[in-house]
Input
Amino acid sequence: MKVLHVSHGCLPEMSGGVEGYLDAVLAEQRRQDLEVVLLAGSHELRPATVIETHAAGVHRLHRDDLYFDLWSKSYSPAAEVVIDEFFARTRPDVVHVHQWIRLTSNLVEIAARHGIPAVVTCHDVYTSCPRCFRVRRDDEAC
Output
């Protein structure tokens, strides 16, 4: 079975809870002889494209629009085209979406177009809060 994980970022470019969790999950799935692929967003501004990194099975999606970390820019038509082509090329059996900031907000829809089942794990409240963690800059709760 080929599992495609999709996340806003991954080690070593970004490090945090989701990235650490993904690192452990991918390692365990590989130990279980699953074919594991990771598509992760990047902070690096480049023309919209997917680039395979030095690590096998790890791909970075780059966007060319400024401020792509903003909640209001979670949908990206350019990223959608690139991701649609990536799904067609990699042909995973299942897509596991962990986060879509820096990617595009319609990842499940793209998977459905290809007949690929999708699972979403919400690691934070990004789906309903532009601040992701419901905390203001002064550490007060929203």
The longest strand covers residues 35-41. Strands lie at 2-7, 35-41, 49-52, 58-62, 94-97, 118-120. The mean pLDDT is 86. The CA atoms of residues 74 and 80 lie 11 Å apart.
